[in-house]
From TrEMBL, chains A, B:
Top-level taxonomic group: Bacteria
SMART domains named in the record: HTH_LACI
GO molecular function annotations of the record: DNA binding
Organism: Streptomyces sodiiphilus
Protein name (record): LacI family DNA-binding transcriptional regulator
Domain HTH lacI-type stretches: 5-59
Signal peptide start and end residues: none
Keywords from the UniProt entry: DNA-binding, Transcription, Transcription regulation
PROSITE patterns: HTH_LACI_1, HTH_LACI_2
Pfam family, one: LacI
Length: 330, 330
C-alpha cells in the first residue's frame, strides 16, 4: 500500500483549514466555488481518499456497506444503491451491491462474508432468509437495516406504506367496471409470505370483490415469471380483467406475454405494476404502477445506518409512502 | 463467528462422497437429481457455505470479486455482473458491484479498498482512471480484468470488436439516403478518448460522408446527457438526419427529447444505440443498436480471472464480437 495522504495534507496544499476540507467532503456546509475547486484539485493531485476518516468511525472495520438484494437486474435496486451511496459518501463509506438471486444459500453466504470482512454496515432486502439468519450481523456488531414489506425481527426497518396507493389502484380498476381481479404474486416460500397480495386481498373486499384462488398465480420476481404467470391467468376459464403484479419486472413480463398473445392492455386486461422502476415509463403502454420511491428508501436506510454508527441502540422503523401512478396500462 | 461446516460434514449428512458434493457445488459434472436434492438439503440444514474452499485458493484472501463500473443504473452492467457471478459461483466467489459514477476519485478509492480488503479479483470498466492507477492491484497481486474499448496497460482485457456491426449500421443509415451523421459521444476527459466515435468517423469516410465537428456533441453516458445532447443537435443550423449514441442510456435520453420536441424517430432522425441494454427492446420505437453482449463479456472476464487464479502470468486479450441489431429507430 502507498502511504496515506491525510486531510491535513490536503488542507495545506489547498491553503485552507482542515474544517473546510471536511465541509467539501461531507457537503454539510456551503463552501465558496473557488475554494471547493482548490480543495478538489488538491485531493486529486495528492490522491487523497477519505478512508482514514471513515475507518476511525469503527476501528479496524471496512469502509464498505453491503446492499444485499434479490435481483441486481431490477433497476429499483440500482436506484436504491445510488441514493444510499449519495448519503454515505460524506462518511467515506462505499456501497457495494451483492446479488442473491433470491437464493437462501447465497443470502446466507453473503451474510457470512459481511461478518468476516467486518463490513461497516449491511442493508438487505431478504427474500428467503429467516429472521434468525440475520442474527449473525447483530452478534458481530454490524449495523443492519432491513428493507422489506414486513418486520424482520428486532432490527432497523424501512418499509412501504402502500395502503392508500393500493386502494387508489383498486378504485381506478373497479371504476372501469372490472371485477375479476388477479395477481401475479411472489413465490409461496418467500419470507414473510406476500404482504402485497394480502393487502390487495383485504382491500378488494372493501370494493365488493375478491381474489379467488385460481386468479392468484405465483412465481419469482422476474420478467420471465411475469410472462409465465400472465399466460397461466389467460388460460383460466374465467379470465381476469385486471392483473396486479408483485413488481414492475413481473409486470413487464406480463406485457411481453400480452403482446405475444394479442391480449389488449388495457382494453381487455388492466395491468398494475409495483415500484415504478426506471423502465415503467419506457414501455408501451406506459405502466400504471404503485410507486415505491427507491431514492427515499435508500435515503431512509442511510439515515438509520448513520444513527447506528453514531451509537443509537433502540430499533427504529421508517415507513415510506407509496404513491399510485395512473399511466396507460390500467 | 459460528463454527465452519465443512464439505465432509455435508457429504456425511447426505450419504455421498465429498467429490459428489463438490460436483453439485461446481456444476462441473452431472449429478443425479435425487443425489443433488439430498446434497442441497444437507447444505441448507447444516448452513454450509463454500467460503472455506474458496479461501484455500489464495490463503488469507477474501472470496469477493469486485465489479467496478461507472453507472450501476445501466442494466448492461447488471447483466455483466449476473454472468460473472454465474461463472464464479462454482469457485465459492461472490461478485460485488461498486459504482464509481464515472468519478475518478471514487474509482481510485475503490481500488484502494480492493487492495485493503484483499479482494480475490477485480473486474473494472474504467472511465476516468489512468492506466497507472490500476498498478496498485498488480502490486498487491490481485487478479485484474479490464473491460474497456481500448487496451489499458499490461493487464487482461475484454474488449469489443464492433467494426463489422458499426459498418452495418452505417450501411443501413446511408442506404436510407441519410448523410448528415451525428454522434452523442462520451466526455472529452474520459480515459482512452472515445473509441466508438473514432471507429464511426473512420468508417463514415468509407461511405463518402463524415462527422463534422458541429455534429459531435459530448456528455456523460447517462439518459440526462442523451436528452441534452439531442437538444443541442436539433438546434444546429444543419440538423443531422442520423444520430449515433455512446450507449443505450444516452439513446433513451435522446428518444425522450425527440418525443418532447416532436421530432419523428426514425422519420426525421434515425437513432442508433450501443450495447442492447435490457430496455432497448422495451422503448417505442424499439431501439436499433449495436449489441455488445454483456453476458459474453461477463463470461470472458470470469474465464480470464479463473486462469489468473490458476497461475497464468502472461496477459491476455479477449475480443467479444458486437452485432448490429436493426429494430425500429433506424
Amino acid at each position: 500500500m502507498q502511504e496515506r495522504v491525510t486531510m491535513t495534507d490536503v488542507a495545506r496544499a489547498a491553503g485552507v483549514s482542515t474544517a473546510t476540507v471536511s465541509y467539501v467532503l461531507s457537503g454539510k456546509r456551503p463552501v465558496a466555488p473557488a475554494t471547493r475547486t482548490a480543495v478538489e484539485a488538491a485531493i486529486t493531485e495528492l490522491g487523497f481518499t477519505v478512508n482514514t476518516a471513515a475507518r476511525s468511525l469503527r476501528t479496524g472495520q471496512s469502509t464498505l456497506v453491503a446492499l444485499i438484494v434479490p435481483d441486481i437486474a431490477n433497476p429499483f435496486f440500482a436506484q436504491l444503491a445510488a441514493a444510499l451511496q449519495e448519503e454515505l459518501r460524506g462518511l467515506g463509506l462505499h456501497v457495494i451491491v451483492c446479488n442473491t438471486r433470491a437464493d437462501r444459500r447465497e443470502e446466507r453466504a453473503l451474510l457470512a462474508e459481511a461478518v468476516q470482512q467486518r463490513f461497516a454496515g449491511v442493508v438487505i432486502t431478504p427474500f428467503r432468509l429467516l429472521p434468525r439468519d440475520i442474527e449473525v450481523l447483530g452478534r458481530a456488531g454490524i449495523p443492519t437495516v432491513i428493507s422489506a414489506d414486513v418486520p424482520f425481527g428486532p432490527v432497523d426497518l424501512v418499509t412501504p406504506d402502500a395502503r392508500t396507493a393500493t386502494r387508489q389502484a383498486l378504485e381506478r380498476v373497479t371504476a372501469a367496471k372490472r371485477r375479476r381481479i388477479a395477481m401475479i404474486a411472489g413465490p409461496r416460500d418467500a419470507t414473510g409470505g406476500d404482504p402485497r397480495l394480502e393487502l390487495l386481498r383485504n382491500l378488494a373486499r372493501q370494493f365488493g370483490t375478491s381474489l379467488p384462488g385460481d386468479l392468484v398465480v405465483r412465481g419469482e420476481h422476474t420478467r420471465e415469471a411475469g410472462a409465465e404467470g400472465f399466460a397461466r391467468l389467460m388460460s383460466r376459464r374465467y379470465r381476469p380483467d385486471a392483473v396486479f403484479c408483485a413488481n414492475d419486472m413481473v409486470a413487464v413480463g406480463a406485457l411481453d406475454k400480452a403482446n405475444e398473445l394479442g391480449v389488449g392492455i388495457p382494453g381487455e386486461v388492466a395491468l398494475v405494476g409495483h415500484d415504478d422502476a426506471s423502465f415503467a415509463s419506457l414501455v408501451r403502454p406506459q405502466l400504471t404502477t404503485i410507486r415505491y420511491p427507491a431514492e427515499d428508501v435508500g435515503r431512509a436506510a442511510a439515515r438509520l445506518l448513520k444513527e447506528r454508527l453514531d451509537g443509537r441502540s433502540v430499533h427504529r422503523t421508517v415507513r415510506v409512502k407509496a404513491e399510485f401512478l395512473a399511466r396507460d396500462s390500467a
